[in-house]
Amino acid sequence: MRATVMYSAGDVRIENVPDPDVKEPTDAVVRVTRACICGSDLWPYKTLEHSDTGRVMGHEAIGIVEAVGADVRTIKAGDVVVMPFAFSDGTCLFCQDDLQTSCLHGGFFGTVEVAGAQAEAVRVPQADGTLFTLPVGEDDALMPSLLTLSDVMGTGHHAAVVANVGPGKSVAVVGDGAVGLCGVIAAKRLGAEQIILLGRHADRIALAREFGATDIVSERGAEAVERVRELTNGFGAHSVLECVGLDQSTETSIEIARPGGAVGRVGVPQDEAMPGSQTAFSDNITVSGGPAPVRAYIEELLPDVLEGRIEPGRVFDRVIGLDEVPDGYRAMNEREAIKVMVKP
Amino acid sequence: MRATVMYSAGDVRIENVPDPDVKEPTDAVVRVTRACICGSDLWPYKTLEHSDTGRVMGHEAIGIVEAVGADVRTIKAGDVVVMPFAFSDGTCLFCQDDLQTSCLHGGFFGTVEVAGAQAEAVRVPQADGTLFTLPVGEDDALMPSLLTLSDVMGTGHHAAVVANVGPGKSVAVVGDGAVGLCGVIAAKRLGAEQIILLGRHADRIALAREFGATDIVSERGAEAVERVRELTNGFGAHSVLECVGLDQSTETSIEIARPGGAVGRVGVPQDEAMPGSQTAFSDNITVSGGPAPVRAYIEELLPDVLEGRIEPGRVFDRVIGLDEVPDGYRAMNEREAIKVMVKP
User: Fold this and answer.
1) pTM higher than 0.90, yes or no?
2) Minimum-distance CB partner of B99 among A97, A260, A274
3) Is the ipTM above a cut-off of 0.90?
């Protein structure tokens, strides 16, 4: 089959690789009908060191189950399934606590260990715990929004949940990528009264406003902090969704939170030390978050997608075939596209 | 009156200073009957730069109200009161949220701005919001435990609350100072099943065991992490109470938390960046805490003190007069004393 292989920073190729098959009795093989390029794929796109074997990329997909192992009980061939970016057994103590991204027998797609889904097919370990069968056909009109349940919508929702977003709260969303935009949707859905987006791209800002952003702050650093304070009676936001992962965005996130507030981090932190530690301490600001257990959130978010109350699929502004994936990386890296959908 | 004045690191003197008086109509003047030296006083004791005016130290006290300003309604002369380390108006939006340490009209005792309580008397701003009248006489036998409600017991409790300690949980307490020991009391009181103290002083360990610690870890760094993992089925603790504030203790705290767990910080962080950011992220560990709103906790903790269910006053292992305060600083700094009570 054809798949997306990254060999080093900037070196993304479409190549023929062996077809995936059922290796473990808990595996499924899924024919990929929709995949995407993720903002987090841009980190290796910018920094990956060369390897001769390369890495099959992609961790978000919807597809049709082609085969299942002997121990798979709840998933069967022909099912239309959404694949979260992490696989998980669904039974360990962390899965029981709805923290599937820390599953004792879990892991992540598109890594050195487990091939990814920017491909014609993908092997899914722990199929019962990982996959979620969708009550729709292969080409349902809702596919874009359903596809976001594999990562960005669940991730934006996670940021909002761990930042304690709730009715009447003021929320600041740092970052106008697909996750930040989904964070706006999540904040609105959870009842936030004020939603301030920190971003500077006109197309994304326009979409954020449609999703429910009430205010836009395009400044950065100290000026952004000042603007958010002005917009929140001088106090800062109850909840801040950190959807970037850089030092500056993290520091800004802490500085725009009000005393007693919370920062939900879902941008993968690029540095080992977190800035703003003393500010967070002196203001009793909670810093939480991490890889979103999106598997846990599908059940909650799916009805809103199916009934059209949320439309996270609107973050896709480009649809490409597998051969165009290298250019899709380039387009996202150059901020030419918000998020790219792949139809293998 | 006589008061403790710190001029620079290591330079603590008992001097005659002007008697405090009611400056604002919301002030009270309190004759100090009990004060203490706090672990956090040791930071300036080690690092304060010289000033000619010096700083009147001390932020924990019990005393008798001598005078109140015209606007004070709930506190009257003769009341036996406990004074939290922060003053607060009790009415602003942060006080209403029980975050008195972020009061819009609040501040801290023993600072350049507001004289402290290691003195014969202290001026208390925002007396109605700050002081709590105790239903006991001036020399009640429970004075040591009541005195801890001004800081260390409330602070240990805060760490436990923000680290989500609850029935059946495993808790690790990092630091065997007075706050750490009160953290053990708080964890036990909130129903923790396992309480692991990280400390290495025999006398403190013995007291921690009496307070409810089930396990002791005296290793540091990577070895401490390994020991805590062994004690918690390999997963780490649900809740970690960081009661030190150094980089290493913070990093250890994050590393011994289990995925989805929480670290409650009450040790004042000595560095601007927090180590362990990526570990906290990858394991979805919440980092929370800050200056404890001890004023909010007095009402909850007081009955347990009055009825003898908790005995935080046992952290005091030395009682001195005002003249001996400089030696008290030395003794605490050299770990010769856990916590020193001052009877001015």
Assistant:
1) yes
2) A260
3) yes
